[in-house]
Specification:
Length: about 80
């Protein structure tokens, strides 16, 4: 995840918006966007290197798909 950069997750079936939730990211992310088979995420600012937030996406068939949202790692060069 990168601050102020939109990430879109696309699934093979519709997402249950009422049962999809972001845990612990209140105030750190724009409200979740859920459109059909897509979940749209946008952090309001850069996440700290030690931060992680849980996203539980519930699909129309009731299956839950967990994600851990972490900041983007910067790779060292040379």
């Amino acid at each position: 995840m990168k601050g102020q950069v939109v990430t879109t997750l696309r699934f093979e079936q519709a997402v249950d918006a009422a049962r999809t939730r972001l845990v612990g990211g209140e105030g750190r992310f724009e409200p979740l966007g859920i459109v059909g088979r897509k979940v749209i995420l946008e952090p309001r600012q850069e996440l700290d290197s030690d931060e992680g937030f849980s996203l539980m996406v519930t699909l129309a068939d009731g299956r839950e798909v967990p994600f851990l949202l972490r900041p983007r790692k910067v790779r060292a060069t040379g």
